[in-house]
Amino acid sequence: MLGIACDPLQHTSMYERGSDDSEDSDGEGGLGNVSRVIIRPPGQSGKAKRGHLCFDAAFETGNLGKAELVGEFEYDLFLRPDTCNPRFRFWFNFTVDNVKQDQRVLFHVVNISKSRNLFSSGLTPLVKSSSRPKWQRLSKRQVFFYRSAMHQGHYVLSFAFIFDKEEDVYQFALAWPYSYSRLQSYLNVIDARQGSDKRFTRCVLIKSLQNRNVDLLTIDHVTAKQRSTNRLDRSFIRVIVVLCRTHSSEAPASHVCQGLIEFLVGNHPIAAVLRDNFVFKIVPMVNPDGVFLGNNRCNLMGQDMNRNWHIGSEFTQPELHAVKGMLKELDNSDVGRMLKSALISII
Question: Helix 180-192 and helix 252-264: axis angle, to 10°?
Fold first, then answer.
């Protein structure tokens, strides 16, 4: 893991809890995510007992808006819509604890906004626990995606699960989470391990609306002096621009992007050839606010940035505005005039 500190659940709280917020809290966290909500059977109150499930999504990349007990073992789960945009409800990432040994449950995610998705083709949710930190897909035999007459004809994702360890905290997610904090930790690690032969430079392209870094990595073998004087041994420069996580829920793309960066700055002979012949401009997280907040597609303002490249407002989409500015500057600069070709790859 490259020396990156990380707890087993990547469960970093995004809200400060007060001293009076205990295990028995029934409150909800900021932005509509549940925050240690304990679900009790009807007519019961007081201190929670084992088996009264405690749901939490008030952490970075978390998403769960509400949980309801609808049967002895059944729970309806409601995803929180993207901030400022009720249309998008697909990403989920939440934890469950205070379980009872061998407790059986049936979870129904009842408000998914996409009826056509990979669940109908066999995709299943991920699960891990504090004692088993490796993500695993649930068995297809445990997962069902169907149109439910009990939910006004909406599509419902249902999955059965058995909690086998009382002391564990269980985490469920749509895909392997990759948070803004994890990206910053990774970039700090590879930046610190660079030797005298620097293979990349890192700068902050822009700050997001919530003041998070939108990082830009430049990977090549062209020195700053060569760039300023145009004293290059090549007749042209090929630039490859890689943009990642414009849609915040597409977390697997961040794992791909990290692997790409790791290879390009590494010692493999092919990586050296690539650095000699290409300039890589990589923006590993275009939408850091949406990622942090646990949104599905949108930024803080509820805008699907991958559908707004023609706008790219510096006030509501500063990230897009900065990326477009970077591309225009590259095209108009001295280096840009030497471009033979440019490839933009959006992950």
Answer: 10
In the chain, which stretches have pLDDT less than 50?
Answer: 1-30, 223-225, 227-232, 234, 340-341
> 180-346 maps to which CATH number?
3.40.630.10
Contacts of 120 (CB under 8 A, 6+ apart): 145
d(Cα 296, Cα 247) in Å, to the nearest integer?
A: 7
pLDDT tens profile 222-262: 644 454 444 445 456 788 999 999 999 999 999 999 999 99
Domain limits of the chain? 30-173, 180-346
Handedness of CA 203, 218, 289, 186 (dihedral sign): negative
CATH architecture of the domain with range 30-173:
Sandwich (2.60)
3-state helix, strand, coil in the chain (%, to 5): 25, 30, 50
- For the four alpha carbons of 301, 302, 308 and 309, in that order, the dihedral sign comes to positive
What's the whole-model pTM score?
Answer: 0.86
